[in-house]
Design goal:
Low-confidence stretches: 1-10
Shape: globular
Helix content: 40-55%
Distance between the termini: 27 Å
CATH topology: TIM Barrel
Largest sheet: 8 strands, parallel
Order of helices and strands: HEHHHHHEHEHEHEHEEEHEHHEHHH
CATH architecture: Alpha-Beta Barrel
Number of strands: 10
CATH class: Alpha Beta
Strand content: 5-15%
Oligomer: single chain
Length: about 375
């Protein structure tokens, strides 16, 4: 019998707790990462000077530290407010091209072999670009980054998720964009923004259109708001994945799963979990006690993500290393969440399967020899 691409490999010891150097070499996959939350500090300084935007500081290291500290508020709304400065420099073709290209190169440097980047085109119109021009420009920048990464011997595939902002009323327009650009690198859709008070059901027209056009979508839910937001995202809106979803633990008592938790686990609905970000927004209390470990042990399809690399001062290597150091994760656990992410990626099955079989599993072999 032929082994499946996700079978354990005899030459990888899954019980090993890898050091940071080993983690850095591991192939990685990230499903939940915001373009406007991942700029390089030095790039932000240069682009801000070019457009005349005032930053808290023009020293790149100090700016990185300011972002990290400002985001550690324990409140999602305050966390989101830090995006004022990154969005200010992403209103022009030049700013979007550079940030998109560098985004890909930073993923490649972190060992990411597949990534999905999300952003809200409606927040990038102040410089005179139209919605389609924003998407076209970002796709051009991502393509340039992928070409450079491939030439450097660190290929990475990046798909795009277009976000509608849940507090505004343009989600149907953004859904139309996702449909229009689905053959040009856009792989799905998301609803983002302040969660509490802005239920995903307010955007049913967008979700119905996406389902009719066979475009997959994820929804931010269960981060700042509780179990009802997850239920609504799944059963009312039809999400195929859940962004964050940490509050699903509200439906698990003494190890017994409630109806919503059972639905998510049994139907292999991926949870896009972001430990460091969740600490900053108050959705979790520590890495050691983050729900991702408990949910992994209960058989949920958890995935590991960065959310916002600048705002959270993180990388996939850091997120993995924190779980190893503070939650006792092993090489096998890291491989599992990587495979989980690829299983739930918004790209065709054969392409997901090939990445698991030909890139991730052999990459784990090589990184641990």
């Amino acid at each position: 019998m032929t082994a499946s691409p996700t079978d354990s490999r005899n030459d990888v010891r899954p019980d090993v707790r890898p050091d940071t150097d080993t983690v850095r070499r591991l192939p990685k996959a990230v499903l939940h990462d915001h373009l406007d939350g991942g700029l390089r500090p030095a790039t932000l300084v240069e682009l801000a000077a070019a457009v005349g935007h005032t930053l808290p500081t023009t020293d790149p290291d100090a700016l990185a530290a300011w972002y990290y500290e400002a985001a550690n508020s324990g409140d999602l709304v305050c966390y989101i407010a830090t995006f004022e400065h990154t969005l200010a420099v992403m209103q022009t073709r030049e700013g979007l091209l550079r940030t998109a290209e560098e985004y890909v190169l930073d993923l490649a440097a972190d060992g990411v072999v597949y990534g999905e980047v999300r952003y809200a085109p409606e927040l990038m119109l102040d410089g005179g670009l139209t919605l389609p021009e924003v998407v076209e420009t970002v796709q051009e920048g991502l393509a340039a980054g992928m070409a450079k990464a491939a030439d450097a011997g660190t290929p990475v595939r990046v798909g795009t998720l277009l976000c509608g902002m849940r507090m505004f009323d343009r989600s149907r327009e953004i859904a139309d964009l996702a449909v229009a650009f689905r053959d040009a690198g856009v792989v799905g859709f998301d609803i983002a923004g302040a969660e509490d008070g802005f239920p995903p059901a307010d955007h049913l027209d967008a979700f119905a259109h996406l389902r009719a056009e066979n475009v997959p979508f994820t929804i931010h839910a269960g981060e700042a708001h509780g179990l009802p937001s997850i239920h609504q995202a799944l059963q009312v809106c039809g999400a195929q994945r859940i962004g964050h979803g940490v509050r699903i633990t509200d439906d698990i008592v003494d190890g017994k799963l409630g109806r919503v938790a059972e639905w998510i686990r049994d139907r292999r609905i991926a949870l896009e979990m972001c430990p460091t970000s969740n600490l900053q927004t108050g959705a979790a209390t520590s890495i050691a006690d983050h729900p991702i470990t408990r949910l992994r042990d209960l058989g949920f399809r958890v995935t590991l993500n960065t959310d916002n690399r600048l705002v959270s001062g993180t990388t996939m290597t850091r997120e993995m290393s924190l779980l190893v150091e503070e939650a006792g994760w092993t090489l096998g656990d890291l491989r599992t969440v990587t495979v989980n992410a690829l299983k739930s990626a918004f790209i065709p099955f054969d392409e997901r399967n090939a990445l698991i079989r030909d890139v991730v599993l052999p990459g784990y072999d090589l990184a641990t020899r």
